[in-house]
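> @MW can you paste both from yesterday?
MW: sure, first one:
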Amino acid sequence: MHGVAGYVAMRFLLEAGVAPLACVFIAAAGATIVACVQHKIVEGPSQWIGRRLSDRISALTPKRRGQIDGRRLGVLGAWLRINSAASVRRMF
């Protein structure tokens, strides 16, 4: 979808007599501006709302084994946390 909008913009610019290299730079600048505006208006606020919602949900749920401060440690991290250093030394 993004590529189609860029191609359409470049096609209009080419038909208006703008040089091909200038068309590429104008389309890239336009895409960058649209992306920045979209991030400010849509993505930024939705990330903020999602972060607040996630904080509220994690405050209500108990911590599971294999987590430290709500962060997932993965299989290896959980295994290392569950097994003490002494039991690891006995294995080898």
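MW: second:
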Amino acid sequence: MNWTVVQRILGILLMMFSITMLPPIVISLIFDDHAWVPFVESFGLTFAAGLLVWLPVHRVRKELRLRDGFLVVAASSGPCWARSARRRCISQIRSRCR
């Protein structure tokens, strides 16, 4: 398993994901609703985490093998699945309490 390749790709993915938080910042500033602060904090933390993961291995140029690709997909999509499952559980609990 090429851990350095996986680490490099996950760092790049984190930095790319942080860029998706820029449009909400711009829209919040346009409408002046003062909701831009959490987005700036999230952008900064996510970008810094991605940079810290990517920077030590940014010069590594190895081939991504099939099993490495599976690990990248599982590591990058796992938190999304956990978040959606948590939302679904919370919504089911709320609907039962009504």
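> thanks! The helical segments are 3-19, 22-31, 36-54, 66-97.
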